[in-house]
Design a protein that fits this description.
The complex is a heterodimer of chains A (about 600) and B (about 290). With about 600 residues, chain A is of the alpha/beta class. In chain A, about 55% of the residues lie in helices and about 10% in strands. Chain A has 25 helices and twelve strands. Chain A is elongated and about 90 Å long. In chain A, about 55% of the residues are buried. The chains are: A alpha/beta (about 600), B mainly alpha (about 290). Chains A and B meet through helix 5, helix 6, helix 13 and helix 15 of A and helix 3, helix 4, helix 9 and helix 11 of B.
Chain lengths: ~600, ~290
């Protein structure tokens, strides 16, 4: 569907200019709709796919327009060449604004874009030598004699080019959102902790998204130049930013074709309803409020076919799923201490997990188990001590770097992307197998397509392994609790772990489900995976683990086989309190 | 020259007090509701408008016009909370949605005032008279802004530290979930915080219009400056809002003696980007995503 939509626009690029040959007004309007659609597509990248609201996308749009205009007037460039270069400064600005705000969150992005657009507006208005300020920069109509010799007039080939650029941009976005990079955006949008745990560098992927969005907005701005021919600081106006935002939201967030509907609406409405011009902004605001409150999925909700393709799970490979795990290294911690203010959650813990071991970490509430796991997986930096995996220190890198080296963790509070299917969730997690460069995702050569097929097969194998075959196409948000836990394990497996750290995987599971989990963990160990498990379910842990590490009040209390730990007086005391009797020890079995 | 700088310093402190109070409200809403109220500047503008209309149209004395401003803005804020904040706060993507709805509300309020009042500035007289130190003049109205500002800050500090509602506010700012567990009615506390912060902005607007003139655009100007302040000061940090608000007012006033106003504005906005690049959690804040 998405492809045929793009093909349709390509067809329109040929047919419309001919059909509208005698009608410059309508063809200009169609070109403007394409430009606004492109602008909406760009806003939708951050607003829809990243969940970052932008109040200043006019910064990128205006920068693109001015870049093209200045290249033509000051440097004597051919406009159509300048059109190709104009997205570059906008992309750089996007990367800068993205980097400034992506480390702290979406609210900062909204504020940073707003002020960036204001800065550029003020610069454009006051740098008279360069921009002529409010008088405006005049650009000649970029006519192409070679095309006109075929009998085409300017408005015809201008429309054709606008539609071509739009189709090309749609194809770029379509390829990206179906690639590992685009799938990582969905995970990052849901939870950057989840994304990092699966090896996705959240800040970097956000910056990539925002830079691309800036480039597309800059392209839209540059395309607008032949229509306006006078570049004024109003190109950076908040009204334009608001228009872009509204196009994306009215059309339909996180859909490929929604912004086109929005762009069409915004090109046509002011023409049809000229009398509303005075109240235009008020009406925009009212529409925005109504859409957000009443129809958050936007106009595409009324045309389901435009919503985009549903990613269907491929057929399962016959037989038992073939999953192989890379051989692990030894994970070792030395003198690990972590303080939160005055509280010492973990104190001087040294431990090691050898390859192919299945180790349990137990301890009463508040023993520091989860803090310990976060330290081991690179999610927390230790106050003292270090964690190494195969000799490489992981404790001061970002969490995704730990995941990259094969150290994958899960979370106590199950994290998935609920609006995506089980298959999509697990497929997104295959990101870590071989991170793809953006260019590879755009070009999609044979080697890339082969890797995509492998990723799909791996995702299916992981789903089958945890027993969710029958659920592959269901929305993750619709799964019952036990299956949700299994899904998060499937995602962790898809991220190509060498050592898997599970944070309370059995919490809240009933007896049958806990048994299934035990069977699965043993199977993983037999397949060559090293596993560390934190849990409260002592009965399961004692039966399951090769070795058990006991923590109490932040300190390492004991380590050994289930029988050794069970007989250890210090352990019994920690669990049962000082007044225990020998006869009570069976409570630990 | 020294007199000019001292005079600008004094003027900057008045404006800075206004920034501090508006930014304080913004940061309080962020602390309790974890959202950015984009319409916060419009509450400031509405406060100014209500004071102007109170004095000129209704013929009220200035003191009563201030009271009118507080009441009017509180009612508008209650409505905004009912329509645009409370119903969407706990939905999926709540914070992003509130950003959008309050953005829409800010445009609506601004347009409504533009259509009814027009773009022209409005002026009223506050407290007449002034004290002078040599050639440096401090109008009584500016003095009122400073004194009232300090009294308000002390009052807010007292409420937050000593009163039950203040303790609830601080509890929710730390963890809404834990606050709910111990039985704090977070819905009510959120609403009270939102309306109180808006009333504070309205009061500030009413205090400032005799000094700076009323203009329908004053809300948009102050909100961006308030954003700069809370980002540099640390989102959710009251100390950061007050310190950076005062600093920004002084900086703006001093800059106006050296560079044209628009350039000064651009430089202040650029400070925000620089602060985000160098210290994204702000001077007084801890990282919160």
């Amino acid at each position: 569907m998405m492809r045929s939509g793009i093909a349709l626009i390509l067809a329109a690029a040929v047919v419309l200019p001919l059909a509208l040959s005698g009608n410059a007004y309508y063809s200009g309007l169609a070109a403007y709709a394409a430009i606004l659609g492109l602008f909406g597509l760009s806003v939708n990248l951050t607003v829809g796919y990243l969940g970052y609201i932008s109040f200043g996308h006019a910064a990128f749009y205006g920068l693109g327009a001015y870049a093209a205009g200045l290249l033509v007037t000051k440097r004597g460039f051919n406009f159509w060449l300048a059109l190709l270069l104009a997205p570059l400064p906008a992309a750089a600005l996007g990367a800068l604004v993205g980097f400034a705000s992506a480390r702290v969150g979406g609210a900062y992005f909204a504020i940073a874009t707003l002020t960036t657009a204001e800065i550029l507006r003020l610069v454009a208005a006051n740098w008279m030598d360069m921009t002529r300020g409010p008088l405006g920069l005049l650009v000649q109509r970029p006519r192409v004699a070679a095309i006109e010799s075929f009998g085409l007039v300017f408005h015809q080939y201008y429309l054709a080019i606008c539609l071509l650029v739009l189709a090309l941009s749609l194809e770029i976005v379509r390829r990206l959102i179906k690639s590992p990079v685009g799938r990582s955006w969905a995970t990052i949008r849901e939870s950057s902790a989840l994304a990092e745990s699966l090896g996705m560098p959240a800040v970097r992927q956000r910056v990539v998204n925002i830079a691309l969005s800036g480039a597309l907005a800059g392209l839209a701005g540059a395309l607008f130049v032949p229509r306006t021919l006078v570049l004024t600081p109003e190109l950076f106006s908040p009204t334009l930013s608001a228009t872009g935002l509204l196009i994306a939201i009215l059309g339909g967030k996180a859909t490929l074709f929604g912004p086109l509907l929005g762009g069409l609406t915004f090109a046509l409405l002011p023409e049809v309803l000229r009398f509303i011009d005075e109240y235009r902004i008020a009406i925009f605001a009212l529409v925005l409020l109504l859409v957000v409150r009443l129809q958050p999925s936007g106009l595409v909700a009324f045309i389901p076919r435009l919503r985009g393709d549903v990613v269907k799970a491929p057929a399962f490979p016959a037989g038992d799923p073939a999953l192989q795990f890379r051989p692990a290294e030894t994970l070792s911690a030395t003198g690990l201490t972590r303080r939160f203010g005055g509280l010492t959650a973990v104190e001087d813990i040294s431990l090691a997990i050898a390859p192919r071991e299945l180790v349990g970490i137990i301890g009463p509430n508040g023993a520091g188990k989860t803090t310990c796991l976060s330290l081991l997986s690179g999610f927390l930096s230790p106050s003292e001590g270090a964690v190494t995996f195969g000799g490489v220190t992981i404790s001061d890198g970002a969490p995704h770097a730990a995941a990259r080296s094969g150290l994958i963790r899960t979370f106590q509070q199950t994290a998935v992307t609920p609006r995506n299917s089980v298959y999509e969730n697990v497929l997104a997690a295959t990101y870590n197998r071989q991170p793809e460069h953006v260019w590879a995702c755009l070009i999609q050569n044979a080697a890339y397509r082969k890797r995509e097929a492998q990723r799909a097969a791996q995702a299916m194998a992981c789903i089958a392994l945890v027993g969710l075959r029958h659920r592959a196409d269901d929305l993750a948000g619709s799964l019952p609790y036990g299956e949700l836990k299994m899904l998060s394990i499937a995602a962790a497996l898809a991220a190509n772990p060498r050592l898997l750290l599970l944070d309370e995987p059995a919490a809240g599971l009933n007896h049958t489900e806990a048994n299934q989990l035990s069977v699965l963990l043993r199977k993983l160990r037999d397949l060559g995976l090293t596993v560390g498990v934190i849990d409260h379910n002592l009965r399961m842990m004692m039966a399951l683990c090769d070795r058990i590490i006991v923590l109490d009040r932040g300190r390492l209390l004991a380590s050994g086989s289930a029988a050794e730990v069970r007989a250890n007086p210090a352990v019994i005391k920690a669990y049962l309190g000082p007044g225990w009797n020998k006869g009570d020890a069976h409570a630990l079995s | 020259m020294t007199e000019l700088i001292a005079q600008q310093l004094l003027n900057g402190l008045t404006q800075g007090m206004a920034y501090a109070l508006v930014a304080l409200g913004l940061t309080m809403i962020f602390g309790v509701l974890h959202v950015i109220n984009f319409a916060h500047g419009e509450f400031y503008m509405l406060g100014g408008l209500a004071a102007v209309l109170g004095v000129t149209t209704a013929g009220l004395p200035y003191a009563l016009a201030i009271a009118l401003a507080v009441v009017t803005v509180s009612i508008v804020a209650w409505l905004v909370d009912r329509i645009a904040v409370a119903p969407v706060l706990d939905t999926r993507d709540g914070p992003a949605t509130v950003l959008l709805t309050t953005f829409a509300v800010s445009l609506l309020i601004h347009q409504a005032v533009l259509q009814s009042w027009g773009p022209a500035p409005g002026r009223i007289d506050g407290l007449p008279g002034a004290i002078s130190f040599g050639s440096i003049v401090l109008g009584y109205q500016r003095l009122l802004v400073l004194v009232a500002g300090i009294a308000l800050l002390a009052g807010i500090e007292f409420v937050l530290r000593r009163m039950a509602i203040g303790r609830k506010v601080r509890a929710i700012a730390q963890s809404a979930y834990a606050a709910q567990v111990v039985g704090i009615d977070i819905i009510t506390v959120r609403r009270v915080t939102f309306i109180a912060a808006a009333a504070l902005a309205g009061l500030t607007g009413a205090l400032l219009v005799p000094v700076t003139l009323f203009s329908p655009a004053m809300g948009q100007h102050v909100i961006i400056n308030a954003f700069v302040i809370v980002v540099i000061g640390g989102m959710g940090s009251p100390i950061g809002a007050v310190v950076c608000g005062l600093l920004l007012g002084v900086l703006e006033a001093l800059a106006s003696t050296v560079v044209p106003q628009e350039i000064g504005t651009a430089i202040i906005y650029a400070l925000l980007l620089a602060a985000l690049l160098v210290r994204p959690q702000g001077l007084f804040g801890s990282v919160r995503t």
